[in-house]
Automatic annotation (TrEMBL):
Keywords: Hydrolase, Membrane, Transmembrane, Transmembrane helix. GO terms for molecular function: hydrolase activity. InterPro entries: YdjM-like. It comes from Paenibacillus farraposensis. This is Metal-dependent hydrolase. It comes from the Bacteria.
Length: 238
């Protein structure tokens, strides 16, 4: 499914279920649901989540900085010839990578930074850092679209937010799971339990097609109905 559909369905359904179950829907729970609904696609550099976190303007700025850094390396005594020329050429070449590849490299470096410099948040810094690094190496709908990815994200939320109630980790974990269930409607489906090759797929749609858009709109409409029901019940309780 498209990122827009994942965002609406994952956030709307998870928060509605929380409200109907009697849990308090806090701003933190909403934030967890929004992130959880998009997080599985972090292994796709051009997904809605990654492209918003690393927009095209930021990539162009990084490219300019890399070209400037290449000039600095070449014209300063940082490296002796011919290494200054070699390093400068490598940096210039890297600055012209496609946006998809550049986003992967940036995510990889962010993962290393979190794992290396986030010791105050151990062991979660290693978990988050390793997850980002792995996401740049695995294919789309790989590790993040599995039961293991769902468990890791939900467990991370539970361990870090349980003192603030249950709504945060429940919202984030449910939204993440809903993303996987939504992708199971596509022709490709998902492999929820690798290394087992079994796929969960219902073959109802193909992302980016007219039929796919119709299925997404139906799911969004059903989500809207559930949200209205949750709001009406909330008002009734008040």
């Amino acid at each position: 499914m498209m990122g827009r559909a994942h965002l609406i369905i994952g956030t709307g359904v998870s928060l509605s279920v929380l409200a109907l179950s009697g849990y308090e829907v806090t701003p933190a729970a909403v934030a967890a649901a929004v992130v959880g609904s998009l997080l599985p696609d972090i292994d796709e550099p051009n997904s809605m989540l990654v492209s918003r976190a690393l927009p095209a303007k930021m990539l162009r700025l990084i490219q300019l900085l890399m070209i400037g850094a290449a000039g600095w390396v070449f014209f300063t005594p940082m490296a002796p010839p011919p290494w200054n020329l070699i390093l400068a050429l490598l940096m210039i070449s890297a600055s012209f990578m496609p946006s998809r590849s550049m986003r992967k490299v940036i995510i990889f470096l962010i993962g290393i930074g979190i794992a290396w410099y986030g010791e105050a948040y151990a062991p979660w810094n290693y978990i988050a850092g390793c997850l980002l690094i792995i996401c740049t190496l695995v294919p789309h709908r790989g590790l993040t679209h599995t039961v293991y990815g769902t468990a890791a994200w939900t467990g991370l939320l539970y361990a870090t937010t349980r003192l603030h109630g249950d709504s945060i980790w429940l919202a984030g974990g449910m939204a993440y799971l809903l993303h996987l269930l939504a992708d199971s409607l596509t022709n490709n489906g998902i492999k929820p339990l690798p290394p087992f090759k079994w796929k969960l797929r219902f073959k109802l749609m193909s992302t980016g097609t007219r039929k796919g858009a119709k299925v997404e709109n139906v799911c969004i409409a059903l989500t809207a109905i559930l949200v209205v029901i949750a709001l009406l019940r909330y008002k009734h309780l008040m």
